[in-house]
Specification:
Blueprint: E1 4-9, H1 13-28, E2 32-37, H2 41-44, H3 50-53, H4 61-68, E3 74-78, E4 90-95, E5 103-107, E6 121-123, H5 127-136, E7 141-143, H6 149-158, E8 163-167, H7 168-173, E9 182-183, E10 196-201, H8 205-211, H9 217-232, E11 241-248, E12 251-259, E13 266-274, H10 278-304
Parallel strand pairs: 1-2, 1-3, 6-7, 6-8
Antiparallel strand pairs: 3-10, 4-10, 5-8, 5-9, 11-12, 12-13
Helix pairs in contact: 9-10
Length: 305
């Protein structure tokens, strides 16, 4: 293909790593890709907690605009940052195989973290992580932590917190996972955490055909269920909603939950079914969760806004 495929990416180390993976995949298929760097609002505002910005798609909006304006041909995102309803005119071109879906705790360098400490101080800007942590460790003080992964790791090293919570995939992809990091196996991830999404304009057949060569169907199915669950609950960055689906032996296993912001209340849902249930499992799980007490939590969160 003679046409150059312009890949839009944010400028952070992680975003560039993700876009470079897509570039390499396209090169391997015989295409001519190049990276185009776009600055996002989420990168320029490093002080406001995500849930106070009040805008879904804070990390994707600038790339959406560049895509719709024709400045780039495809955009690469961490899928968990993408609104469940994408901008009009933009569609999925490919989903890459999922990396780790887990959250991890990065203790302060030189510290041996103890969950039995009487007064923990943990840093995160995620309402979801905060609520799940407080549900398990109610005596913790949570501090806000913003910035790209490099900035956040530096703040952990320089601060007086016991540790901070990160997505495992982000640190592992760029080789920055500290040796003392702890997998939080009990913490349910954000919907689509660990997955990379490639999008293009809905009328760009060439880009869709190019990206189809590396689309991963299992990851697409699982993240689709998780995002359906989130969409059905009308959740966003300000709502502590978690979800994870996986395919095992030809069946889908799904776990989801919603918590109050202070972590005191929690409602969980588990479902299992054949692959043929994929298109409705996320919505059904959401309805069952709401009926089991999730509606009360959701109403209380909305009343706080």
């Amino acid at each position: 293909m003679d046409k150059v495929i312009r890949i839009g990416t944010r400028e952070s180390q992680l975003a560039v790593w993700q876009a470079t993976q897509v570039k390499d995949l396209l090169c391997g298929l015989g295409y001519r890709p190049e990276l185009t760097y776009i600055k996002s609002d989420g990168d320029t505002d490093l002080k406001t907690p995500l849930y106070e910005i009040g805008v879904q798609g804070i990390f994707t909006r600038a790339l959406d605009i560049a895509l719709l304006n024709g400045d780039i041909d495809i955009a690469v995102h961490s899928m968990k940052d993408v609104p469940t309803i994408m901008a009009k005119g933009i569609v999925t071109a490919a989903v890459l195989p999922r990396a780790s879906h887990k959250d991890i705790l990065v203790p302060r360098p030189g510290d041996s973290f103890s969950e039995h400490a009487s007064h923990l101080v943990i840093a995160t800007s995620s309402i979801r992580r905060k609520a799940q942590w407080l549900h398990r460790y109610p005596n913790t003080r949570i501090e806000n932590l913003r910035g790209n992964v490099n900035t956040r790791l530096r703040k952990v090293a320089e601060g007086d917190w016991n540790g901070a919570i990160f997505a495992a995939a982000g640190l592992e992809r760029i080789g920055l996972r500290p040796e003392n990091a702890i997998d939080l196996d009990w913490m349910l991830p954000a919907p689509a955490q660990g997955a990379i999404l490639v999008v293009c304009r809905e009328n760009d057949i060439d880009s869709m055909e190019a990206c189809a060569g590396f689309h991963n169907q299992d990851t697409s199915i699982c993240t689709g269920i998780e995002r359906d669950f989130l969409r059905a609950l009308l959740g966003g960055c300000s709502t502590p909603i978690s979800a994870f689906a996986r395919v095992a032996a030809g069946r889908i296993i799904f776990h989801g939950n919603i918590l109050s912001k202070d972590g005191h209340k929690k409602v969980s849902i588990e479902k299992e079914g054949p692959l043929s249930d994929a298109s409705r499992m996320g919505y059904e799980a959401a309805r069952e969760l709401l009926a089991a007490g999730g509606q009360e939590i959701l109403d209380s969160i909305r009343n706080e806004m």
